[in-house]
Amino acid sequence: MARVGGRNSVMSWIAGIFCTGVVVGLFWFAIPIVPTLVAVVGDALRALFA
Predict the structure, then answer these.
(1) Would you say 31 and 37 are in contact if contact means Cβ atoms under 8 Å apart?
(2) What is the pLDDT of residues 8-43, one digit of tens each?
């Protein structure tokens, strides 16, 4: 295996997949807040321009 930046490329792939999984998991848990966030932003914009 080629070494990039002094690191084993297999370990780099494992770490990359793990990090991607963590980001996807956090995104999955954040999805339910989207409608509430849209409502809050909409109310704030209506109050600002009313």
Answers:
(1) no
(2) 888 888 999 999 999 999 999 999 999 999 999 999
